[in-house]
Design brief:
257 residues, alpha/beta, Rossmann fold, seven-stranded mixed beta sheet, binds S-adenosylmethionine
Length: 257
């Protein structure tokens, strides 16, 4: 009797723990996919999701080796902008270096600050819009973080790398890429991860990136050279890449090249 009760208690404990984990996963999925309430704007919904993570293991698999390769070839640089970073930015996968700084832009950001990372609350569609107070405030914070005068021309074309991970479905992708391209140095790079038309559909922008070919059109028009492109989830026999999960690196050409 005494011997039989002990395994039973362990079994009950295991079942309870498994039930808790299952409830936690189901609740998490429900909250990420729930429809915004009537009258609720997207920012409010994203605010409620601040702190969530979005497939961190997948992002690590997709971006870890790519970042390592770019680091080895000295192609990341010291000023990195992470657009739509969330609270667990993928750019934290990059090496930390005393001279390296990352600016994480997110519509729901908590404006947190550390020696190497600044979180900036900003609708990415507002970048470059000097008429918007939110952009001027964001620029001021970023300039202070970098020890720069926001009024100087040097404030533009300054970033070495701009990362867009899992954001281009949710914004006017052309406007956002165009806006941040202005802050990228000639020779600097965009790193893009996107899964067209998949994610939290109720939060999608009608102007989101729905087809990878639209991304190529943007890059061509803005004089970017695609250096790396992969489709890690494309079935081996599929030839159509237009709606596949894409990981891409593109380099901004210097003037005249
Ligand atoms: C699917 S999550 C991706 C987070 C992170 N980049 C990653 O790959 O794990 C999308 C993020 O974009 C942010 N976001 C959505 N719309 C935005 C906008 N208009 N401007 C800036 N950030 C936005 C959300 O707050 C959220 O943190």
């Amino acid at each position: 009797m005494g011997h039989g009760i002990f395994p039973l208690i362990i079994a009950i404990q295991v079942i309870l723990i498994l039930a808790c984990i299952a409830t936690w996963i189901i609740q998490g999925r429900k909250s990420w996919t729930r429809q915004p309430r009537v009258g609720e704007d997207r920012t409010t919904t994203w605010n409620q999701h601040w702190g969530d993570t979005y497939g961190p293991e997948l992002k690590k698999r997709l971006l870890g080796p790519l970042f390592d390769r770019l680091e080895t070839d000295d192609q990341i640089g010291n000023l990195i902008i992470d657009v739509g970073s969330g609270a667990a930015p993928v750019t934290r996968l990059l090496k930390t270096k005393p001279e390296r700084k990352r600016i994480c832009v997110d519509v729901a950001a908590d404006n947190g600050l550390s020696a190497d990372e600044l979180m900036v609350r900003l609708d990415a569609g507002r970048v470059g819009d000097f008429g918007a107070l939110s952009f001027r405030k964001a620029l001021l914070r970023a300039s202070r973080f970098l020890g720069m005068d926001p009024r100087t021309k040097a404030g533009r074309e300054y970033a070495d790398t701009v990362v867009f991970s899992d954001i281009l479905n949710y914004v006017d992708f052309w406007k956002v890429l165009h806006g941040f391209a202005q802050y990228l140095k000639p020779g600097g790079r965009m790193v893009i991860v996107n899964l067209p038309i998949r994610g939290n559909r109720p939060l999608f922008s009608v102007k989101g990136l729905k087809d990878n070919r639209h991304l190529y059109a943007f890059l061509f028009e803005h004089h970017f050279e695609i250096e790396y492109k992969s489709f890690p989830k494309r079935p081996r026999d599929a030839t159509d890449e237009s709606e596949e999960l894409i990981v891409l690196v593109a380099r901004k050409r210097s003037a005249g090249r």
